[in-house]
Write a structure and sequence with these properties.
With 115 residues, the chain is mainly β. 0% of the residues lie in helices and 60% in strands. It has a 6-stranded mixed beta sheet with strand order 2-10-9-4-5-6, with no helix packed on it. A 4-stranded antiparallel beta sheet has the order 1-3-8-7, with no helix packed on it. The protein is globular, with a radius of gyration of 13 Å. The N and C termini lie far apart (37 Å). The mean pLDDT is 96.
């Protein structure tokens, strides 16, 4: 499985961005996809994940502001980010969880929120 993320950029506080992650290869073996982020001086943290059946999970810090969604068949996963704050500034990485293989990571995309 290969993951290609896009959609990062510079936005003012309060603004919105939509991240996309396109999956290719053996996507039939994916059972969950999501987004993690790593801000300056911080450890990588879960932002949002969506699993088979549409179950979602969010970091407390983004609940009510971010929405994770996906295409049918795991072709792509999206992260709609509204009400962005300076503390959301980070490199956002796409992740896929694959049966019998574990985690697959895409390259990161930088999100910078100016206050």
């Amino acid at each position: 499985v290969q993951l290609q993320a896009s959609g990062g950029g510079l936005v003012q506080a309060g603004g919105s961005l939509r991240l996309s992650c396109a999956a290719s290869g053996s996507i039939g073996n994916i059972f969950a996809m999501g987004w993690y982020r790593q801000g300056p001086g911080n450890q990588r943290e879960l932002v949002a994940v969506i699993a088979d059946g549409g179950t979602t999970r969010y970091a407390d810090s983004v609940k009510g502001r971010f929405t994770v969604s996906r295409d049918n068949g795991w072709n792509a996963v999206y992260l709609q980010m509204n009400g962005l704050k300076a503390e959301d500034t980070a490199v956002y990485c796409c992740n896929a969880k694959i049966i019998m293989r574990g985690d697959q990571w895409g390259q990161g995309t930088q999100v910078t929120v100016s206050s």
